[in-house]
Design a protein that fits this description.
The structure holds two protein chains of two kinds. Chain A is globular and about 80 Å long. Chain A has a three-stranded antiparallel sheet. Chain A is built from 15 helices and eight strands. Chain A is of the alpha+beta class. Helix content of chain A is 47%, strand content 13%. The model of chain A has no long low-confidence stretch (mean pLDDT 88). By secondary structure, chain B is α/β, with parallel strands linked by helices. Chain B has a domain of 96 residues: NADH:ubiquinone oxidoreductase Nqo5 subunit (Beta Polymerase, domain 2). Chain B is built from three helices and eight strands. In chain B, strands 1, 2, 3, 4, 5 and 6 form a six-stranded mixed sheet that branches. Chain B has a two-stranded parallel sheet with strand order 7-8. The longest helix of chain B is centred in the C-terminal third of the chain and has 12 residues. The radius of gyration of chain B is 16 Å and the shape is globular. Classes of the chains: A alpha+beta, B alpha/beta. Chains A and B meet through α8, β7 and β8 of A and β4 and α3 of B.
Chain lengths: 367, 148
């Protein structure tokens, strides 16, 4: 006897606990197996690219904070680097070191969130995540000490940073950085030796090297698939050529490898911060930039290795005070293109974990 | 350091391969005619020595008299990059060939350019609005779009 069956459509989102924001996935299901998935977004679209054309270069920094709100400092850096390239502005040494310290702290905090949420989606509800929040909280305390803000920092400026660090910052940072490897190792041991976690993540959601490159994937997801590509090494910006660090690369490209990348990268960030703390010179933190900045006509692309992938700003100047075009190359948005490749043919329970392992922020996807 | 490939070197090769399709080249930027963008992108992707296997981003700029499409191509193997551009003078119905069949990474980005700038990509598998809703009128990133 045969039954008449037909595929049916299930909407996950826009309000869904696992979507990290307002995001909808339209699953076409055959029983529990996904036949097709269509991501639908735009729920958080604020038209940042258009708004930025109406404000001047300095005012536009605040929009970057509100794109990927978990990595504000990194977004600041990508943007100010593009403006500095456009206008030919030099940045003082001390400011470069401060930027490196802040963006690497930001990377640690973002990766903590990724790992925490990934476990949340595996069913370890809230407990691991709150431990991650505890560690992130200490980073936020450090940021508050530097610029008075805990979420949208707006700390970097064109040609430097907004203010120097207080005296107590470096000792507090040292204390934190010294305690962090122990925490990560303990945490990793609890999880990476957990049989359920291994069963749910190993050999699931495999992203092949060729697919990853063809889909323009960047960041930890690309490296988990075995491509050694890190903008900090491939196109060293700021002062990254002065630091000694490794680029971890995955072998299989499954969820476990993507989890592994985040853990390894946190250790590498700690290495970079330690070197930066030892080398940081005293001196100016802001170079002389005209109050009304009018970059010469032209275009520039500034890009960095943000925690979620390559974040770039393509700016076009017509010689006036406002950018003529302000294009963002959002890593989260472009990384999402691989959803269909990864999810077709897997069970719906795995789809949620695959989604978590890509690590996106809807503020940056929708802009 | 990602090497910015000198455009003059590449443009000579392109001129020999596709006569008459080049508009201009300077620095590491090559401007080509819109109808030949697919053939040239395909040539750049598949020719040994260039191997542009990674499409970093696509965007469009509205210069009032024409639209400029910007493709930033990177080769992960050789670590070099090139900016490929094309210009559309038709404001009513600007159309360029889609490069999704070469790089899947163009899929969402071409949809975004279509949504916000109103440039159609011929051969795109699913060309519809991505950020704004289906009934939306106009394309906000165009310079003549009236903000209410």
């Amino acid at each position: 006897m045969t039954f008449k069956t037909e595929p049916f459509v299930v909407n996950a989102g826009p309000q869904h606990p696992s979507t990290h924001g307002l995001f909808r996935m339209r699953f076409t299901l055959d029983g529990e197996v996904i036949q097709d998935v269509e991501p639908v977004f735009g729920y958080l679209h604020r038209g940042i690219e258009k708004l930025a054309e109406g404000l001047n270069y300095t005012q536009d920094i605040v929009f970057t904070d509100r794109m990927d709100y978990l990595t504000s400092m990194s977004n600041n850096q990508a943007y100010v680097m593009a403006v500095e390239k456009l206008a030919g502005i030099q940045v003082p040494e001390r400011a470069e070191y401060l930027r490196v310290i802040m963006t690497e702290l930001m990377r640690i905090s973002s990766h903590l969130m990724t790992v925490g949420f990934l476990l949340n989606e595996l069913g370890a509800f809230m407990t691991p995540l709150l431990y991650m929040f505890r560690e992130r909280e200490k980073i936020l305390d450090l940021f508050e000490m530097v610029c008075g803000q805990r979420l949208t920092y707006n700390y970097l400026r064109i040609g430097g940073v907004s203010q120097d660090i207080p005296e107590e910052f470096l000792p507090a940072l040292k204390k934190y950085i010294d305690s962090l490897p122990g925490f990560i190792a303990e945490y990793d041991q609890l999880l990476a030796e957990n049989e359920i976690l291994l069963m749910r993540t190993k050999n699931i959601g495999i992203l092949k090297r060729e697919t990853a490159i063809n889909c323009s994937i960047s960041g930890p997801v690309l490296r988990a698939s075995g491509v050694k590509w890190d903008i900090r090494k491939a196109d060293p910006y700021s002062i990254y050529d002065r630091f000694d660090f490794d680029v971890p690369v995955g072998a299989v490209g499954d969820i476990y490898d993507r989890y592994r990348m985040r853990i390894e990268e946190m250790h590498q960030s700690i290495r970079i911060i330690k070197q930066a703390m030892a080398q940081i010179p005293s001196g100016e933190i802001q170079s002389k930039v005209p109050r009304v900045l009018r970059p010469p006509k032209g275009e520039a692309y500034g890009h960095i290795e943000a925690p979620k992938g390559e974040l770039g700003f393509y700016l076009v100047s017509d010689g006036s005070t406002n950018p003529y075009r302000y294009h963002v190359r959002p890593s989260s948005f472009i990384n999402l293109q691989v959803l269909r490749e990864l999810m077709t043919g897997v069970k719906i329970a795995d789809a949620i974990v695959i989604f978590g392992s890509i690590d996106i922020c809807l503020g940056e996807v929708d802009r | 350091m990602t090497l910015a490939l000198p455009a003059t070197e590449i443009s000579a090769k392109l001129e020999a391969q596709f006569p008459g399709s080049l508009v201009e080249s300077s620095g590491n930027t090559i401007v080509v005619k819109p109808e030949s963008i697919f053939q040239i992108a395909s040539f750049l992707k598949n020719t040994p020595g260039f191997d542009f296997d990674y499409l970093n981003f696509i965007t469009a700029v509205d210069y009032n008299t024409y639209f400029e499409l910007v493709y930033y191509l990177v080769s992960l193997e050789h670590n070099h990059g090139l900016i490929l551009k094309t210009r559309c003078t038709d404001r009513e119905n600007p159309t360029v060939p889609s490069v999704v069949s070469l790089w899947n990474g163009a899929n969402f980005q071409e949809r975004e350019v279509y949504d916000l700038m109103g440039i159609k990509f011929e051969g795109h598998p699913n060309l519809k609005r991505i950020m704004l809703w289906d009934g939306f009128q106009g394309h906000p990133l165009r310079k003549d779009y009236k903000i209410q």
